[in-house]
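Batch manifest, entry 17 of 40.
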Amino acid sequence: MGPVTVHDMTTRIDCDTCVVRGLHCHDCVVTVLLGPPPELTIDDDERAALDVLASGGLVPPLRLVEPVVGPVVESA
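Output type: structure tokens
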């Protein structure tokens, strides 16, 4: 196992880059608990805690959908 980086242990929540922003903000745990922040970083333990709360029906799930970088297409 290689060295662990901070990126491996955190989830960066940036509502500005969420693909479903506006469509699912009303039903996202971030909005319910904190209001829509510009950016939020939570660690793996906090993410797991939110998942437990959501699976128990206490809060809505995290609805964050991050965009996927597509292939680079060069013209001929």
